[in-house]
Specification:
By secondary structure, the chain is of the alpha/beta class. The chain is built from 23 helices and 16 strands. Strands 1-10-9-7-8 form a 5-stranded mixed sheet, sandwiched between helices. α16 links the parallel β9 and β10. α13 crosses α17 and α19 packs antiparallel against α20. The longest helix is centred in the middle third of the chain and has 19 residues. It is globular, with a radius of gyration of 23 Å.
Length: 568
């Protein structure tokens, strides 16, 4: 790990000395909540022990892994949200298209698992959308009778995976019968949850239990992340071994300047205090999806009490003049990556221009096991530096509550619709946050003038976001990225495109609980406008059309109440 911090180096060195003097690494490992906000942090530090946990606890029982290995499904699908789905998404995007021989190691020390010994090889995908078009497109691509599903939810009550399970199970049961359909599902949840009870009653293929003292976004090295890896035919023991090596390197007796996780956290926390709170990530193409995992971990952990670090997974680095003085650049490179040289040239120029630059190199993709622990430790340290609780997510619940209220109002109105737009023009329904009230009135219902007013409101160190409750198709993403590309360089602000409901459990916490420097667009399709009829949610009631709309509108309302400058 190489730090090029320029004028910020002395401030970071002071932070390191203070941390060392107060024995904070020891105190963190001892679950001392006083180094954070002194609330309930001690309850959520079980992730420190995951790298050295027994495989039965960290991955799943040998019996369950054998049953998964023997299952005839050729595709594994995680039905989850946030921390339960983002690491599996990295697994799939990193390893799905590699030849089977390249995806596993020849090392005998990592060939003892049921999945590895059976030579199992499945591709892994994540379904975490409530958007009907996205759901139907996914189910059309992957026939359910050929899939093994992991229903992943720590609480067991998360609406998205539960609704998706009910839909898919009902369709499978119509083909195979209820009992046979249930054998296509594995539950990953915490002990005593409603999902555990449902899985036992329905006769799931199996159940893996997480730890109650590990939060969702810190659960990658638990069954939530490692059992899907085993189902693919990867080597979860190898990921754990890499993490264990890094946990030792980040241990309580390691000096701060030699401790990768603590050093990274102190640098990021100190830089954030000095206004460098936009974490711009560049990664080797092989591990590019890991940026989304970092995004959730850092944004949801730090985005509260009016503070926070906004990660920006960036597909390409620009010239130094493109960026304002709110950036820190972190590059993660896999050894042998042919693109690392060009990124290195850009990073050199950024460092010369005074931007802080941090470079991290991994030996191979399995070193993501190390990277998981480094970033978890660093995120905890950032929380301590900023004096906040990095393990809660108070503003995620605010959007959930708004969704529930809208769904209840919709039900009370018997489907007549309860969401009224502020402006209707050219067939488009537009919602304007109250902070844009004067600008919205001046625009006189003209969408182009409204958009100009939104962009004109951008100030230095703001961020421009595009949140879309739409299908994440290449065509839609390309259109949204064009908006992002037009605004960012012109205004020298950080920009991001996110798809709902995934972002609600990621950057959504920071949007609402972090600094009031958020400007952007919230896009969704109204339930009434979608063709083909509503996509019902069996067993729960209601439909995905209204759920997705309620999630989008509910989040928009909370953003508006928090004074964010938004158009919907």
């Amino acid at each position: 790990m190489l730090f090029e911090l320029g004028e910020h180096a002395s401030a970071v060195a002071t932070a390191q000395a203070d941390w060392e003097r107060d024995s904070r690494t020891h105190r963190l490992w001892n679950r001392d909540a006083t180094i954070f906000s002194n609330s309930d942090e001690a309850r959520w530090l079980g992730w420190l022990e995951l790298p050295t946990a027994a495989p039965e606890a960290a991955i799943g029982s040998e019996t369950l892994r054998a049953a998964i290995a023997a299952h005839p499904a050729d595709t594994a699908v995680v039905l989850g949200m946030g921390g339960s789905s983002l690491w599996p998404d990295v697994l799939g995007r990193t390893w799905n298209d590699r030849p089977a021989a390249a995806a596993t190691s020849a090392s005998a020390s990592f060939s003892t698992s049921a999945s590895a010994s059976a030579g199992l090889r499945r591709r892994l995908f994540v379904l975490d959308s409530t958007v009907p078009d996205a759901i139907e497109a996914f189910l059309a691509r992957f026939p359910s009778e050929r899939c093994l599903y992991f229903v992943s939810s720590k609480s067991g009550s998360t609406i998205e995976p539960n609704a998706l399970f009910e839909l898919i199970h009902a369709r499978l049961a119509a083909k195979l019968g209820a009992g046979a359909a249930s054998r296509h599902f594995v539950a990953i949840t915490d002990p005593g949850s409603a999902l555990e009870a449902r899985a036992r009653a329905a006769g799931f293929l199996g159940i893996a239990l997480g730890r109650a003292d590990v939060g969702g976004r810190f659960s990658a090295l638990s069954p939530f992340g490692l059992l899907p890896a085993a189902a693919m035919g990867l080597e979860p023991e190898r990921l754990l071994a890499c993490a264990a090596a890094m946990a030792a390197a980040c241990g309580p007796d390691v000096a701060v300047d030699k401790n990768p996780g603590v050093a990274l956290g102190l640098a990021l926390g100190t830089l954030a205090q000095r206004g460098r709170d936009k974490l711009t990530l560049s990664l080797s193409p092989e591990i590019e999806s890991f940026g989304g995992w970092i995004e959730q971990l850092v944004a949801e952990s730090t985005g509260k009490t009016g503070q926070g670090i906004l990660p920006i997974p960036d597909g390409g680095l620009g010239e130094p003049a493109r960026y304002a003085s709110d950036r820190v650049f972190v590059d993660l490179a896999v050894a042998g990556d042919e693109t690392a040289k060009s990124r290195g040239t850009s990073l050199d120029a950024l460092a010369r221009a005074g931007h802080p630059v941090i470079r991290i190199e991994l030996a191979d993709a399995y070193d993501l096991g190390q990277a998981i622990f480094v970033w978890e430790m660093a995120t905890a340290v950032v929380g301590a530096v900023l004096g906040l609780n990095p393990f809660d997510q108070p503003d995620v619940e605010s959007a959930k509550q708004a969704t529930r209220q809208l769904m209840a109002a919709e039900q009370a109105a018997a489907g007549r619709g309860t969401v009224a737009a502020d402006i209707e023009a050219a067939g488009v329904r537009i919602f304007a946050a109250k902070t844009l009230g004067p600008a919205a009135r001046d625009a006189k219902g003209d969408p182009a003038r409204l958009m100009k007013a939104l962009v004109d409101s951008l100030m230095p160190n703001d961020s421009f976001i595009v949140n879309a409750f739409l299908a994440d198709s290449p065509e839609i993403r390309a259109k949204l990225e064009r908006i992002r590309a037009a605004v960012g360089p012109a205004r020298r602000v950080a920009t991001a495109v996110s798809f709902g409901p995934r972002y609600l459990h990621s950057t959504g916490q920071l949007h609402k609980g972090g600094p009031n420097r958020v400007v952007g667009l919230q896009l969704w399709q109204s339930a009434a406008s979608r063709k083909g009829g509503a996509l019902a949610i069996p067993g729960i009631g209601g439909d995905f059309d209204r759920l997705a709309e309620a999630q989008a509108v509910g989040d928009f309302r909370v953003l508006s109440e928090r004074g964010r400058r938004m158009l919907g």
